Amino acid sequence: MQRLAQKWRRAGQRIVLVPTMGWLHEGHLSLVRRARKIAGPRGKVVVSIYVNPTQFGLREDFSTYPRDLKRDLKLCRAEGVDAAFAPGDAEMYPRPPGAEFSTLVAEEKLSRTMEGASRPAHFRGVTTVVAKLFNIVPPDAAVFGAKDFQQAAIVRRMARDLNFPAKIVVAPTVREPDGLAMSSRNRYLSGDLRRQATVLWRAIRRAQDTVKEAGMIPAVKLKANLKRFIGQEPDARLDHVEFFEPDTLDPVARVTAGTRMALAVFIGKTRLIDNARI
Ligand code: AMP
To answer: Which residues, at least 6 apart from 25, have a Cβ–Cβ distance to it below 8 Å?
Structure first.
């Protein structure tokens, strides 16, 4: 990948990277199309496909995370992707005795709240693998989804702090017709769980409507209301809901138009996240 990218770079071709964990869906493909727009017809679009073990907790779904490289490659080909980079664990995190992988990249401020509080070490795994990809590919730009809003903010901060020249582009969340944000983990939802999963989007709409009516509402009050609302679904359990400034991720005491909302909800055993502007 590094050699191929060097060749492209020497030929003056712009390289745009879309990092993914595979099991590609329309959300990923929207990022690929955005990448193509940025790269231009002569530029190169690279999709990385790698289920990164360092961003999963011990009791999380690393081993069951859906994988189908053949299907992913077919989708990439159909979108005109120039290279799919799908490394193995032994390449990304080599383990020869005495010379095993032992360097991590950690963002220390934005990573502490929300997803970072619920999933310790998650963002350290994300920044580590993204830093590696940025060194392997050297992209001129990299496209991330607003679906993982905190992740995009952390990657942007890492790129700035560590002087990665890549421009970080954030593209909007793609949703199913009933509002459920597309996610590889939606595959875990069968039967009534799929219906219950729309509660994340319904909670977002409820918050938006409340603020539209009231103008302002204390965050604690809205959180309590949403917790009750989400609890009405038999298999839903709120992990966290937060209201914050979109630029700094600092929590706000008062929710108004422009505040960002993010939430994580267990639907049965599946943990789903979503976020939106209020
Ligand atoms: P993942 O494969 O889940 O790690 O996601 C890879 C990239 O796709 C990340 O930048 C995600 O934010 C983005 N992404 C995932 N789902 C969506 C979606 N529904 N809409 C837009 N982007 C998404």
So the answer is: 174, 182, 183, 184, 186
Using alpha carbons, select from 127, 125, 144, 132 the residue that is nearest to residue 19.
Answer: 144
Whether the model pTM is above 0.85? yes
Ligand 1 pocket check for 20: Cβ under 6 Å:
yes
Instruction: Tell me the domain boundaries of the chain.
Output: 2-171, 184-277
Atom of ligand 1 nearest to the CA of 148: 12
**Secondary structure (H, E, C), 206-260:** HHHHHHHHHCCEEHHHHHHHHHHHHHCCCCEEEEEEEEECCCCCCECCEECCCCE
| CATH of the domain spanning 2-171, picked from 3.40.630.30, 3.40.50.620, 3.40.50.700, 3.40.50.2000 | 3.40.50.620
Residue nearest to atom 11 of ligand 1 (CA): 145
Mean pLDDT for back-to-back runs of 10 residues, the chain (278 residues): 96 98 98 98 97 96 96 98 98 94 97 96 98 97 98 98 98 98 96 98 98 97 98 98 97 98 98 98
Torsion of CA 132, 1, 18, 33, to 10 degrees: 170
Q: Which residue has the least CA distance to atom 22 on ligand 1?
A: 145
**Which class in CATH covers the domain with range 184-277?**
alpha beta
Report the nearest-CA residue for atom 5 of ligand 1.
20
Cβ(51) – ligand 1 distance below 6 Å: no
> Is the distance from the beta carbon of residue 182 to the nearest atom of ligand 1 less than 6 Å?
yes
Given a contact cutoff of 8 angstroms between Cβ atoms, the answer to whether 36 and 80 are in contact is: yes
